[in-house]
Amino acid sequence: MSGCAAALLDDFRADLARITVPVLVVQGGQDRITPPQATGNRLPGPLRGARHVVIPGGQHAIIWTHADEVNQALLGFIGGFLPPR
């Protein structure tokens, strides 16, 4: 079994509480590979202070299909850490 396939058997959920940096989770609302209700919607609990952005109508490859919306989410997230001008 390859390393990647073996990692699929591991449960990393307990490790989420050890993450101490700001986290942005961006995903498509119509993602059938990793649907928000099974993945991203669950992360803000274990990831303290995580921001979860769901792109309406977005499927699994939102970085290509909804690049403007993803970029806006990234800029908004990063902008929250920049000092005011």
Key descriptive features of the protein:
85 residues, alpha+beta, 3 helices
Summarize the structure.
With 85 residues, the protein is α+β, with helices and mostly antiparallel strands. Helix content is 26%, strand content 12%. It contains three helices and two strands.
- The total of beta strands comes to 2
List SSEs in N-to-C order. HEEHH
Fraction of residues in helix: 25-40%
* Major beta sheet, strand line-up: 1-2
- Measured between the Cα atoms of the first and last residue, the distance is 52 Å
The value of Rg in angstroms is 15 Å
- How many helical elements? 3
Query: How would you characterize the largest beta sheet?
Result: 2 strands, parallel
β-sheet strand percentage? 5-15%
What shape does the CA trace take?
Answer: globular
Give an overview in words.
By secondary structure, this protein is an alpha+beta fold. A two-stranded parallel ribbon has the order 1-2. The protein has three helices and two strands; from the N terminus they run αββαα. The protein has helices at residues 3-7, 62-65, 67-79, and strands at 24-28, 51-55. It is 26% helix and 12% strand. The model has no long low-confidence stretch (mean pLDDT 88). The longest helix has 13 residues, at 67-79. The chain starts with a helix and ends in a 6-residue tail after the last helix.
